[in-house]
């Protein structure tokens, strides 16, 4: 399927988003280490650095014709896999989830958690892995 202008812009914005996020893993490593769930079987510091590198590699791959589809699928799966870390982060920060109340507020965490499926969809849409048809109902009318 040919790439539309909107999809190209979406792909570029996704690449920028993940490039910045990947760099953040190296700048704010200690903060990110504390939200890696305890059940992850690897060293949390290494996980944060490895996932930061993966985000930057996938961001670069989004810019290539050859690797963009694989990068989109990888980023969609990645967004699904890091969702538990986002949940843990909310549980650390929010008192109503048993946290300290000293971190970021619900105004940060609730939209972040709700946006995760949209981030997955964005990654798949931006590389053409899924198609969104306008004006089509469930019955196909």
From TrEMBL:
<keyword id="KW-1133">Transmembrane helix</keyword>
<keyword id="KW-0472">Membrane</keyword>
<feature type="transmembrane region" description="Helical">
    <location>
        <begin position="44"/>
        <end position="62"/>
    </location>
</feature>
<feature type="transmembrane region" description="Helical">
    <location>
        <begin position="69"/>
        <end position="86"/>
    </location>
</feature>
<keyword id="KW-0812">Transmembrane</keyword>
<protein>
    <recommendedName>
        <fullName>DoxX family membrane protein</fullName>
    </recommendedName>
</protein>
<feature type="transmembrane region" description="Helical">
    <location>
        <begin position="106"/>
        <end position="127"/>
    </location>
</feature>
<feature type="transmembrane region" description="Helical">
    <location>
        <begin position="12"/>
        <end position="32"/>
    </location>
</feature>
């Amino acid at each position: 399927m040919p790439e539309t202008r909107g999809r190209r812009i979406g792909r570029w914005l996704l690449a920028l988003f993940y490039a910045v996020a990947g760099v953040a893993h190296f700048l704010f490593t200690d903060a990110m280490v504390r939200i890696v769930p305890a059940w992850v079987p690897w060293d949390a510091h290494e996980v944060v650095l490895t996932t930061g590198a993966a985000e930057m590699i996938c961001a670069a791959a989004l810019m290539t014709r050859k690797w963009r589809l694989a990068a989109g699928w990888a980023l969609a799966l990645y967004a699904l896999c890091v969702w538990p870390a986002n949940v843990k982060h909310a549980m650390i920060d929010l008192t109503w989830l048993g946290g300290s109340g000293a971190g970021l507020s619900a105004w940060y965490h609730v939209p972040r958690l709700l946006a995760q499926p949209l981030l997955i969809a964005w990654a798949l849409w931006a590389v053409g892995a899924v198609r969104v048809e306008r004006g089509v109902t469930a019955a196909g009318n």
